[in-house]
Amino acid sequence: MNQQKWERDILNRQRNIVFPDTVLNEGRFYRNIVYGKAVFSRGQKVSLLIVALYFLVIFSAGLAGVIARFLSPDKTHSLADDIWICTYLLAWLLFWMFLAVKGLFPAGPARKVRKRYRSNRM
């Protein structure tokens, strides 16, 4: 990145426009985690693990509630609502588990593959 692009990036990050900059920063945050570019301190890794565990607890409580409603003698609720609730909670759980795994265990640097021009085989 040359100096002019760097300066433009710095000025764009310092603008006083909240919504677009917030979306850009949040996108950059998640992209860096997914591609393994984010470097976390020990405290940040613990915090990421706590967030993932929080969603695990919420999903477990929601699933227990759905099972309790399904097994209850009162059948005034629909099964479709229960399935949607479980699907919604499961989507959040899987999203945060994916981010936690990518953040806590980033992939190592990619190996360089040498191209050979000739093969020693005959």
Report on the structure:
It is a single chain. The protein has 4 helices and no strands. With 122 residues, it is mainly alpha-helical. The protein has 2 domains: 1-39, no CATH class; 40-105. Helix 3 (42-71) packs antiparallel against helix 4. The longest helix is centred in the middle third of the chain and has 30 residues, at 42-71. The chain is extended, with a radius of gyration of 23 Å.
**Can you tell me the number of structural domains?**
2
**Helical residues, percent:** 55-70%
- Structural class computed from helices and strand pairing: mainly alpha
Instruction: Give the overall form.
Output: extended
Strand and helix order: HHHH
Q: Count of DSSP E strands?
A: 0
Beta-sheet strand percentage?
under 5%
| Residue windows where pLDDT falls under 50 for at least 5 positions | none
Major beta sheet summary:
none
What is the terminal-to-terminal distance? 46 Å
Mean pLDDT: 83
Counted by DSSP, the helix tally is 4
Rg (CA only): 23 Å
